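Continuing the series of single-chain predictions for the mutant panel. This is the parent chain; the variants come on the following pages.
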Amino acid sequence: MRAPHAPRRREAVAPAPGLGSPDALVALQRTAGNRAARQAVQGRGSTHPARPVVQRAAYGLDLQPSQDRYVDQAARLYRSNKRMPIDDFVKAVMTTIAGELKAAGVPHFAWALVSGDGAAGAFDSEHWKVLVNTAKFREGDVPPTVLGDLTPQQVTEVVGTLYHESRHADQDVVIIRSLLDQRQSPAQIHATTKMPLTVVEAVKATTYPTPLDPDQVAHAGRMFDVMYGAHRELLQLLMQSSAAFGGLDELAQPDSVLADGAPHVAVFTTWQRNVLQPKLTRMAAARNPSAVEKALRERLTTVGTAITGLAAAWAKVARAKRPSTADQAAVRTKAGAVRDAVLAAYNSLEGEVDAFRVEAKVKAAFGAKIAKP
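Parent structure:
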């Protein structure tokens, strides 16, 4: 996900049903690194599954040799050294990723180990680094310390998450290159995207072996549109109101206190009235919308319908002195419907579809390797 104007982050959120903590989606910012978001949507029956748009010419971490080197190293370390400290494992595999990105023309890539309540992995593109919270590599109160503390499934998720978040740096460089080709200056690109000016200037100074092909240019344009351009409304909501999104998920839980959800419901109903509905009206009036825009409009319409349902259920409970159990349950159900519709729309955005596709390839290869006797 991309984070808000203040560090724009893409995060892998905590697994469902723990989507509710305010920082769990602290950005569903291109946010949304997000294996948990993906799992939540798939597990709850999204009606709009993401349909990958695969570029004919792979770039960066989508190249098979890069994936092979990363998977080979990660699998070897996990199979041979269960006593290896988790931090050392992260350092080793992220160093490999950094080398692959540098070879692909991605400048100044870095990572940092962080602590706190954040997600397991996030790409902070405003500061151009992947943030890794090893305490979140598994559920529970005791954080893992060595590789042997992780099950094969858990380490596979870690390996995929780190690659997914790093892929977002790849994507940003493609966006920068496309904007430079449109004769935008580094200062203009920085002002629009908040990416570091030093990174934009470094991309401009880099000589790439081949220009972006038409598919890559279109890919960059679709990512730009939903992050910074004409269709940025959903990401702006999630970046600016991650606490409200988390509160919505809390409200959807069976034992939630309905009164606690009041400010969060207000955020979504206000956004629907002031932002979403005017947006949908403009989209409906647009001439010759692209297939991507038509799909986005359909997903946003689903979000709007879900918010309308929540607003009606909420109003019924608010009017009653003693709301019935059934009416209270309806509020929780409708809150979950809004959450799922938002996640489905988020996970269908260009950058996340691409990053999940690359992540899936890496996880499949890694899982096969560590399963061998």
